[in-house]
Amino acid sequence: MENPVFTLSTKPDMNPREYRRGENFINISPSSRGLATVHDRDVLIYCISQCMAAFNEGRQVKRKMRFKAYDLLVATNRQTSGRGYELLKDALRRLQGTQIETNLRQGGKEYFKVFGLIDSAEIVKETRDGRMMEIEIALSDWVFDAIQNQNVLTLNRQYFFLRKPLERRLYEIARKHCGSQPAWKIGLELLRDKCGSTSTVKEFRRLVGKIIEDDLQHDHMPDYVFKFDGNYMLIKPKKATLQAALPLGLSSLRLAPDTHEEARRLAPGWDMYHLENEWRSWVLEKGIEVKNADKHFLSFCKKRGAYKK
Length: 309
Hints:
The chain is of the alpha+beta class and 309 residues long. The chain has helices at residues 41-56, 69-75, 82-97, 141-148, 165-177, 188-195, 201-218, 259-266, 272-286, 293-308; strands at 17-21, 24-29, 64-68, 99-106, 109-116, 118-126, 132-139, 184-187, 224-229, 232-237.
């Protein structure tokens, strides 16, 4: 989340990017279809959520994974029509084609590494009308190393309901840098650079101001409130207890291997790994005492299934 790897543009972005901090650098080059977008990142978030759920349950975490395309579309609030499946194919193409170059320092040595955001993507089954049934994705070593080292952050499910790319990027930056501390401040020019915006500072301020205004009216931005403070942006959590307890107590909320099968029956169409993360976050944030994790989770899924109907 430190560097704007994903473009904010909703049109094919063919412009390479370079970001430097001291002697460290990261170069991002597009494929013939353009740079991976902020919305393409949904695929990676979904894959990471599956890996982290497996890790928390003590199951083996694999770099290559297979899942139902429909589950991904539903979990990330994407349309499940034929158009939705075509857009997902485009996202997979951009994720595989976007090339990252960076230097890594380990043991006093400098390394140069080139890689994609995913190594490969394969449609395992496809219906006659062109809809994907199952997808197999191999994550890049860079992404998988972050998962194994637990260098990932949980995101509010409401994140997937943010339609503007800039809204999503602002939330990501707030989640990384502000976290659960009382407040965090950043200069507007630096914030613009972290967002990957190509607008002038004046135009960037106007765009962010519109998001702040919309949030005051509709409270659509999850977890954080944004305010101008002169030429700075002040970011504060909307809840003082935001995610503070999430890393703790996960062992007591571990589920049995066959619980997900029953959960899928109770909440058809929902992504079980996102539901599990949402359930854990809710339990820990509210301080709920769970005596039987499996029964409690299944009850949670039953309510979600009824809500969708």
